[in-house]
Amino acid sequence: MRRTKNKKAIILLSGGIDSATALYLAKNKGFKPLALIFDYGQRHKKEVDCAKKIADSTGSAYRVMKLNLPHKGSSLLDKKARLPGKRSFEEIKQKGIPSTYVPGRNLIFLSIAASFAESVKAEAIFIGAHTEDYSGYPDCREVFLKDFKRAVNSGTKSGKNIRIYAPLINKSKKEIVKIGQRLKVPFEYTWSCYKGGKLPCGVCDSCIFRKKAFKELGLADPAR
């Protein structure tokens, strides 16, 4: 990715490690970020508050987009559904796509980001998706992002001028934490847990991935 200067970029910012690191990478490459934060009916709003803090830490403007996904279809949207937890890293990888998958979430978010980018004349969209992400969500794969870019090219007036960056797509969580540490990402502001307590639960799939990454790097997780 070439270094640029003051070109606008829309950043999909969830409040987690991956999207925070993607924001800092965009900033480091000289883009002027505009963070897009989604309040889509998830179990808790803590990650929305964290995303705001992360955007503020870079001096980036942000917009909070409220969506209603009444069809549920995910344990992240249905508070009555059981969240997967207390599984080993190996079990998570072997069990396939978990109940926390939100149908078409990145497809929805990227479509809004593309519309937003075109309206404000942004030249890039950054997403923190990566292939290790939580048991292989289908909308976190490189093939999906390439197909989506083709749709943007053919379905929008200025789509060919909008680049989609997924700088972490082939990185592991450990590698992402290492990149974030180098860029001085404030991990104390990030939130990964599927629950919204005062401290991470430590047993949900997302917590397992996060704990493993910090432990392998010999780092203390500031969120804990």
Features:
Rossmann fold, 224 residues, 5-stranded parallel β-sheet, 12% strand
Any overview of this molecule?
The chain is α/β, with parallel strands linked by helices and 224 residues long. It has one domain: Rossmann fold. It is 37% helix and 12% strand. The protein is built from 7 helices and 5 strands, in the order E-H-E-H-E-H-H-E-H-E-H-H. The chain has a 5-stranded parallel β-sheet, with helices on both faces. Helix 2 (46-57) links the parallel strand 2 and strand 3. The model has no long low-confidence stretch (mean pLDDT 90).
CATH evolutionary superfamily: HUPs
Biggest sheet, open or closed, and with what strands and sense?
5 strands, parallel
Unreliably modeled segments? none
**What is the first-to-last residue Cα distance?**
34 Å
How many individual helices?
Answer: 7
According to CATH, the fold-level topology is: Rossmann fold
What is the mean predicted local confidence, pLDDT?
90
